[in-house]
Amino acid sequence: MTKRPGKVAIFEQFAADGIEYMFGNPGTVEQGFLDAGGDFDVDYLLSLHEGVAVGMADGYARASQRPALVQLHSGVGLGNGIGMLYQAKRGGSPLVVLVGEAGVKYDAMDGQMAADLVAMAKPVTKFATRVIDPDSVLRVLRRAVKIAMTPPRGPVMVVLPADVLDEITTEPAVPTSIPETRVVPEPSLLARAATTLLSGQRRLILMGDGIATSGAQRELTAVAEALGATVWGVNDSEFNFDATHRLYGGQLGHMFGANSARVVAEADSVLIVGTYIFPEVFPALDSPFRTDAKLVHIDLDAYEIAKNFPVDVGIVADPKLTLAALGKEINRQRPGLAPSTPLEVSRSRPVFPEPPLEEDTVLDRFVRRLAGRAPEDLVVFDEALTASPPLAKYLPAQQPGRFFQTRGGSLGVGIPGALGIKLASPEAPVVAFTGDGGSMYTIQALWTAARYNIGAKFVICNNGRYQLLDDNLEQYWRELGIAPHTHPAAFDLSTPAIGFTGIAQSLGVAGQRVEKLYEVDAAVEAMLAHDGPYLIDLVID
Ligand SMILES: Cc1ncc(C[n+]2csc(CCOP(=O)(O)OP(=O)(O)O)c2C)c(N)n1
Ligand SMILES: [Mg+2]
Q1: Ligand 1, pocket-test mutation among 406, 442, 466, most atoms within 8 A of CB
Q2: CA dist 478 to 481, 483, 484, Å?
Q3: How many A from CA of 489 to the centre of ligand 1?
Q4: Span 96-130, pLDDT tens digits
Q5: What pLDDT, in 10s, does the model give residues 359-402?
Q6: Fold match between 187-333 and 357-539?
Q7: 187-333: which CATH topology?
Q8: Which keywords does this chain's UniProt record carry (predicted)?
Q9: Which atom of ligand 1 is the closest one to the Cα of 436?
Q10: Distance from chain centroid for Cα 81
Q11: Is 438 in the pocket of ligand 1 (CB under 6 A)?
């Protein structure tokens, strides 16, 4: 039995689990284990704010489909990371967050930095615990990794007291056992699901990121084609369904349930798969479905099935295998209704003619030019909010692992998320579109990009405002019959103007400001050609 302190044993455990990176921000209570980590293969990526560390880990976990390790410092560091952890929990990202603490022996002292870390983390994690016994450190770490990776995936947190890690342990470091959850329902249940879906004439599919996690894009396409159902994205922030497919309806949106209600109002049979419904900020309180609509809900998360409204058939199963079997069953029950094999997922970007110069905009031209110039494997992180429509038009989601959006309504994910994705897919060009508002929550991520030369590109869609808040307020005025008036000054970012290229330069990232149409083409070329991170301050109206 090998004897070594827990602070060394944890690195053996990371190695056994193939962990490549630790995203973090350190403090004195973690000094012992960070000092020990120097002898191991895990690369520490220093972030200058905890939101950056968690955001980078989130992007890495999403792109790699693997657990991502985060190190935070005590209650203050965990506190700074919590908003981003909320985002990761809503999105189902398997983050393993380690939080340092002075020691169990100081429990009764209530000294500086003492806090109930488990209680702090609980609402934003799947599992939060504190290691007390030196001989259970690795056991607890493995449990955390297992829980993070078991659907529904999500962030977990383990408090590591310094004195526990200084103790000698003989625990073996062995790979974590992740349970297999590729399960299919029994045939009679599949038959019921198919019959239920075929009973309607106006069929609808509501889907989300559970499709991407399961790798079920082709199977979903086949079922949609077999049913002739329109497909709408609900909690849909990755490539789940080809956005150029004739059956693609769009995304339901995150704000108002009334908008989603209009989409589902006519449907008489509905397949909900890989998502929860409905995720808006202001969801419809009464069921927006027809009273005679038949609902089938397939997901690996039993909690989400029939969470708010009853369904006719609820199935806890893997989307990929279940949709494959469901497609076959639909064709068996109604042969000739549709093709039995899925069409190939389309790979080529749509091509649009150049509009006359006077009708073009800087934003449109930039995205169109990028779509025309960038290689096939371009990865887009879309946190552009009100500047997002040209991205959906010119760079629609068409391939697994090539499209990401923020989740859970959180801002500041774009820049760190793109860095994490670039680490997971170093060969692919990665471009993040974010706003002048969104970027500023985690702008220090640029320093991390420069320090480790992580060559993601960042496009700040700079309109001098929190435009989305203006737009939502205008809708509120309309709904309440309030006469339009000046927007709150709190939504304005124009004074003083933020100098993004100056910030980037001071943090070690090259870039340029683009204001005029004639500057766009050269800027796209410069960005794509630049070796290393690069920022474009794209001035839009
Ligand atoms: C962490 C966080 N804080 C605040 C908000 C509220 N919020 C939603 S949209 C928005 C404005 C975003 O502005 P910008 O990124 O410039 O995009 P634009 O609306 O101008 O397109 C804000 C502040 C949020 N979603 N997340
Ligand atoms: Mg803005």
Answers
A1: 466
A2: 5, 8, 8
A3: 14
A4: 999 999 999 999 999 998 899 999 999 999 999 99
A5: 999 999 999 999 999 999 999 999 999 999 999 999 998 999 99
A6: yes
A7: Rossmann fold (3.40.50)
A8: Thiamine pyrophosphate
A9: 16
A10: 15
A11: yes
